[in-house]
Every structure is written in structure tokens, then in C-alpha cells.
């Protein structure tokens, strides 16, 4: 089913591409839905706070092409009986690799669960469904990377007024400058900052240091922008 337009310039996100519908609500744990991807994007169901963090982090990484949740893989046990396993997150990377992620806190990653993942990993790679299958825990959450991923997500919608001004400003820049100086050149304050963050998200601007993005961050032009 294609995305739906409301006729007022607002387009609803596309439905989830997952093979299993995630819980809408729970009294026992965090559930929710976020929209990932460019344009209208896709609804992405999540069933834990850690899954939400993992989805935001993976979606923001430069190697990620697509991210899909709850992808079905059928595996077989020692008796040949088929079982369903839903992979929490699957990333189709820009280089063509497909990597699956099982998202679980370390405290719940018991031996039986890890043994199941090992079997699923072996069969998924052997059958060509995945190139790799990894366990994602709270130890994989970098606070700096998560801060920037949340920032990228919060400014993902384009701005028909601010974006052209930011592109023009960046097109004329040379060398290494602070985001604050670029914001001043745009004359758009917060609107200009958000537009510049979108250019970092699109890899037109690159950070000099790995740090939380703020006005004092140093950046340089990584590729030309179209005015």
C-alpha cells in the first residue's frame, strides 16, 4: 500500500515493511512507532526503549541504506522442524551487505538465547539471507552518537525556506568553520542551525571532531551542494 496524501501538502508515512506487527501498547514494557527514511518515510514499530535507540542509531549511520524491523527468518532445529524467528532490525547497507540485529539487554542475553542466535546466524548466512547477524545491547549505545542521531531525526523534514539559504551559505564556504559562524551568515538563527544539521546528516558537511553537534562544532564542506 502506498503512502496517503491528505490533500494539504502533508503526506502520511508508508506502512511498516516488517513481517510482524509490533505491539501497540503494553503495561510491562516500552512500545511505540517512529518514522524513518527520507520523504514520507516508513513506520517502524519498536517494542523496547533499547530498540528505539538501536533504530535511531542504525538509521543515522552513513553506511545504512534501508532499515526494516521484524524480518521473518525460518530456521530448523536438530530434528528438521521449522521455526519462525523475527529479526528485530535488518540493515541493508549502501555497499550491498545485509546485517541483522537482535536487540536485547545484556541481563537478558542468557546462554539459551545466545545459542538460538548462533543457530539462526549460521543458517541465515548459509542461506544468503544475511551477511552478518549481531547482538545489540546497551553496551553498543554511545551517548554522543545517540544525541546526534536524535538530532538528525528531529530535523529530518526539509524546510523550503531555510534549506536553500543554508545550501548557498555552505556553497560559498572555505576551510574549517564553526556551525555558529555559518548560522550567522544565514541570518536564520534556529532555522539556519536546523538546515545546517540536515547538511551534516546528508554528508555535505562533515564534523572535524566526534562530538555532540552544537553551535561551537567545527565543520568543513565534504561535497558540493546544489543551490
Mean pLDDT: 93
Give the SSE string.
EEHEEEHEHHEHHEE
In the sheet with the most strands, the strands line up as 3-4-5-6
For the termini, the CA-CA separation is 34 Å
**What Rg is obtained from the alpha carbons, in whole angstroms?**
20 Å
State the low-pLDDT regions, or none: none
Question: How much helical structure, as a percent, in the residues?
Answer: 25-40%
What is the level-2 CATH architecture name of the domain at 61-141? 3-Layer(aba) Sandwich
Task: Please name the defining characteristics of this protein.
Trna Endonuclease, Chain: A, domain 1, 6 helices, Arc Repressor Mutant, subunit A, 4-stranded mixed sheet, 3-stranded antiparallel sheet, 227 residues, alpha+beta
Write the layout of secondary structure elements.
Layout: E1 32-36, E2 42-46, H1 49-60, E3 64-76, E4 82-93, E5 98-103, H2 111-126, E6 132-136, H3 143-154, H4 162-172, E7 177-178, H5 179-186, H6 189-201, E8 205-207, E9 218-221
Parallel strand pairs: 5-6
Antiparallel strand pairs: 1-2, 3-4, 4-5, 7-9, 8-9
Helix pairs in contact: 1-3, 4-5, 4-6, 5-6
Amino acid at each position: 500500500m502506498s503512502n496517503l496524501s491528505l490533500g494539504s501538502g502533508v503526506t502520511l508515512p508508508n506502512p511498516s515493511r516488517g513481517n510482524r506487527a509490533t505491539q501497540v501498547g503494553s503495561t510491562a514494557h516500552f512500545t511505540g512507532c517512529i518514522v524513518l527514511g527520507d520523504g514520507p518515510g516508513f513506520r517502524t514499530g519498536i517494542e523496547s526503549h533499547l530498540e528505539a535507540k538501536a533504530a535511531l542509531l542504525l538509521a543515522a549511520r552513513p553506511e545504512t541504506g534501508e532499515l526494516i524491523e521484524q524480518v521473518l527468518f525460518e530456521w530448523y532445529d536438530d530434528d528438521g522442524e521449522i521455526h519462525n524467528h523475527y529479526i528485530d532490525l535488518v540493515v541493508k547497507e549502501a555497499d550491498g551487505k545485509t546485517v541483522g540485529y537482535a536487540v536485547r539487554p545484556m541481563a537478558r542475553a542468557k546462554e539459551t538465547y545466545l545459542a538460538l542466535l548462533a543457530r539462526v546466524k549460521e543458517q541465515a548466512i548459509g542461506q544468503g539471507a544475511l551477511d552478518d547477524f549481531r547482538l545489540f545491547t546497551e553496551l553498543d549505545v554511545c551517548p554522543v552518537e545517540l544525541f546526534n542521531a536524535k538530532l538528525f531525526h528531529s530535523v529530518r523534514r526539509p524546510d523550503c525556506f531555510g534549506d536553500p539559504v543554508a545550501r548557498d551559505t555552505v556553497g560559498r564556504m572555505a576551510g574549517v568553520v564553526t556551525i555558529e559562524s555559518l548560522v550567522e551568515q544565514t541570518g536564520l538563527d534556529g532555522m539556519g542551525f536546523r538546515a545546517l544539521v540536515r547538511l551534516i546528516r546528508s554528508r555535505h558537511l562533515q564534523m572535524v571532531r566526534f562530538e555532540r553537534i552544537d553551535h561551537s562544532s567545527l565543520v568543513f564542506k565534504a561535497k558540493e551542494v546544489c543551490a
